[in-house]
Structures are given as structure tokens and as C-alpha cells.
Amino acid sequence: MYRQRITLQDAILCKPVKIPLLDGRTILLAIDEVITPKTVKKIAGEGMRIYNKKDHMDEGTEKGDLLVSFEILFPHNLTTEQREKIDRILN
Questions:
Q1: 52 or 38, which is more confident?
Q2: How crowded is residue 66: how many other Cβ atoms within 10 Å of its Cβ?
């Protein structure tokens, strides 16, 4: 499980996010929906290695899935004008 911080703007605009992996690679995760605090995305085969005594954690060992949850960063302050614009957009 990996927790990714994103801005409210990025959550609403469905912007892709960069996910760092344990092996040093980074994956660009495409987002196809508005992200909420309950959203969890699965990246198949990019999680922790699955231990199997038979292959002793060799390079060919199977990996589990990586689950990505989101922490949405809300703005601390909004002007009255910004609040009115958001209200108009969301109504």
C-alpha cells in the first residue's frame, strides 16, 4: 500500500501521478476518475515480492499488486471570489 499526496485541483482534474517503486523506477499512473479520499488504485504486479521457499526470492519471483491510496491536500485559504467561482462551477 502506498499513500500518494495530491492537490485538490489535481484530484478534480484527474491528473496522472508519478508513483515511486521500491526498485527505483517510477510509474506514471493514469487517472480516469475524480479522486476522493476513498479512492484506491491497483497497479498489478508492482507490489512487494511474494516469498516462495522454492525460488528463494530470486529475480524471477512473482510480485504482488501495489495499492495506491490518496491524501488530498486542500487549500488553507480561499478568497470570497474563489469560493463564489467554485460554488458556481459545482452547482
A1: 38
A2: 20
